[in-house]
Design a protein that fits this description.
370 residues; alpha+beta; Rossmann fold; D-amino Acid Aminotransferase, Chain A, domain 1; 4 domains; four-stranded parallel sheet; 9 helices
């Protein structure tokens, strides 16, 4: 029989937070959309609720599931940026360890966020709600969306109630992971990110590798900008700041993600993890305590890559998942072309080599699907 959980994790996919909790030797229950095999190994109980990765949770199903854990402290992950009111509903009567719903709404308001960065002097792409008269040179985005599939060249995007527009900026994607206490923020890692483009989704998220190979002077500017913006935004706990960096070291801050994000798998690279795990830092920040110093180069270079199905496939009962795979779906799970299959994690002497190793592991996964 499993010991009683200390925390309730609610996210579209709860595996990364469940793994982070396990590294910190803390017990969590999980509510998510997938109920993956490894999530069930890392947490108990694990409840799978109705919903869709693009549109989010079925609100009534989520509220009913959360009611099964009255009073348990809540740690939210991805899935609420487009609907902070839903987070408010499931947080009622319990302590929320993360960014408050009202703050999430302000951070994800495109114009409010642009005004905040302008006041702080942090570079940010020109942003507008109305459709530009000349669409070339603009991208369309969806308020509160994640994963990059919602980002489209403006000429191809259909307007909608949550659509907004940004000037296109070229550059390499860099994420600054931070912890914040609602007033201050401390960057704890920098990672390089890449896209897994398709014809319809040219900015689909592909993966990340850390530590980021960035000249120290440029890294210092990114860290200062991330800490300034995250602190002023009111974010609480783990989060990330997404940048685009050009060849000359110029940058823009695209957005703040006010919750643990896709790079969580990279933050505890020491084996075994130190006492200052990412999960421990999150809890401390939610109690008003930030690390005394920034921490970088936490261990061997590590990459985490999303594996997408290249054609219709199914997880066979005979499926043997390769080592260092995560988000493992149970037998019988069916994938359409383009669906995420799992995450592969690889190490290397450098971030580039770790990324290359993750690509080889991804091919091994796809070869084993029926």
């Amino acid at each position: 029989m499993h010991p009683a959980p200390e925390f309730l994790v609610v996210a579209l996919s709860g595996r990364t937070l469940a793994a982070a909790a396990a590294r910190a030797r803390r017990r969590v229950a999980v509510i998510d959309l997938f109920g993956d095999i490894d999530t069930q190994r890392l947490a108990a109980p694990v409840l799978r609720v109705a919903g869709d990765p693009a549109r989010g949770f079925d609100p009534d199903a989520l509220v009913a599931a959360a009611a099964r854990f009255p009073g348990l402290k809540l740690i939210p992950g991805a899935g609420f940026e487009h609907d902070p009111a839903l987070l408010r509903r499931i947080a009622r009567g319990r302590r929320l360890l993360g960014t408050p719903p009202a703050t999430i709404g302000r951070i994800k308001d495109p114009l409010a966020f642009a005004r905040l960065l302008a006041r702080l002097g942090v570079p940010h792409p020109e942003t507008r709600l109305g459709r530009p008269a000349e669409l070339r040179g603009w991208v369309a985005r969806k308020t509160g969306a994640a994963g990059g599939t919602h980002v489209q060249p403006a000429p191809r995007a259909a307007p909608g109630p949550t659509t907004y527009y940004q000037r296109f900026v070229a550059g390499s994607a860099v994420a600054a992971a931070f912890v914040a206490d609602g007033r201050r923020a401390r960057v704890i890692d920098l990672s390089m990110q890449w896209a897994a483009p398709t014809r319809r989704t040219p900015h689909r998220y592909g993966g990340a590798a850390a530590p980021a190979a960035i000249p120290p002077a440029i890294a210092a500017h990114l860290v200062d900008a991330a800490e300034t913006a995250a602190g002023a935004s009111g974010a609480v706990g783990l989060g990330s700041a997404d940048f685009l960096v050009d060849e000359d070291g110029g940058f823009v801050l695209l957005e703040i993600n006010p919750r643990p994000g896709a790079t969580l798998d990279l933050l505890d690279r020491h084996q075994p993890p130190s006492a200052q795990t990412a999960f421990a830092l999150h809890l401390a920040a939610c109690n008003g305590r930030l690390p005394a110093a920034r921490r970088f180069d936490l261990g061997p270079a590590t990459a985490a890559r999303i594996v997408y199905a290249e054609h219709r496939a199914v997880v066979s009962p005979r499926m043997r998942w390769p080592a260092a795979t995560a988000d493992r779906s149970p037998p019988g799970t069916r994938f359409r072309r383009g669906d995420p299959v799992c995450t592969v994690i690889a190490r290397g002497a450098t971030a580039l080599r770790a990324r290359a190793a993750s690509a080889r592991k991804a091919l091994a996964v796809l070869a084993r699907l029926d």
